[in-house]
Amino acid sequence: MGKIRGRDYISWLWQYTAPYAGRIGLLLLFGLLETFASLAMVQITKEIIDHATVGSGFGRLLTGYVLLLLGMQGISVLSTLLTALVTERFSFGIRRQIYEKILHSGWREVTAYHTGDLMTRLTSDAGNVADGIVGTIPNILQLGIELVLVFCMLFYYSPLLAVFALLVAPVAAVSSWWFGRKLKRLQVKVQESEAVYRSFLQESLANLLIVKAFANEEYSTQRLAQLREERFGWVYRRTKMGLISSTAMSMSFQVGYIVAFAYGAIQISRKAITYGTMSVFLT
Asked: DSSP assignment of 239-253, as one string?
């Protein structure tokens, strides 16, 4: 049943994504162009440092570096604008289809869900799906390609350092998977608490006359505070887990940086590499 649900989920996502596949592909292309430009800048930086070390001219290299930098900034601006446009249209498309489905559903099917719950699906849930499809998936593909290119570049200059980085990668992947499962569960709880919170607000405001008639103002205020505290608890736990995961990943990256720095310093002391090559290691 899990596999069936997985296939159904992918089919559902593709149904909503297909009309925007071209624009999402364009976002991926922009990301890849930024990746290639950044790698080219790393290589140019190496050449600039090496030329400066020997005292020769590097004006042409510096010009190329500035042009690449300006090009990357232009691509970044276009990518940001396109991402905002596609995300907004994509999320609205999901909201419209869900809204139409609600309108054409049977009364018994609709009343099985609270209005506040439906509002959560139409607002924050739809927005999260759009952010994941438009932002996260292209970023994953871009980072996968970037990982291969960076490994090849690092292997060219230092096979030992590249192999060390490759050995660290599985540990980082397993850690990310473990933290991801924890964060996914907490995110579901946050969304559920948000739905309950909104449902109570919508219900109490829609029936304000009844609340006043039975003098339930104090109870409603206390109930709202209780729901707020429950939601705050899940948000706090999610934030704490996110902080732990980001700190752990950041520390692992810092270890890699220190290793690259130490290895580069040793190689420079042996005159085995240039200062420019060390800049490649660190970058």
From this structure: HHHHHHHHHHHHHHH
What average pLDDT does this structure show over 99-118? Answer: 74
CA dihedral 154, 160, 165, 170 (to 10 degrees): 130
Return d(Cα 196, Cα 191) in angstroms, integer. 9
CB 138 within 8 A of CB 28: yes
Q: What is the pLDDT of residues 202-226, one digit of tens each?
A: 778 777 777 777 777 888 888 888 8
Rounded CA-CA distance 238/194 in Å is 14
pLDDT in tens, 263-279: 888 888 888 888 888 88
**Secondary-structure breakdown of the chain: helix, strand, coil percentages, each rounded to the nearest 5:** 95, 0, 5
CA distance 170 to 237: 27
| CA end-to-end span of the chain | 46
Q: What is the pTM of this model?
A: 0.65
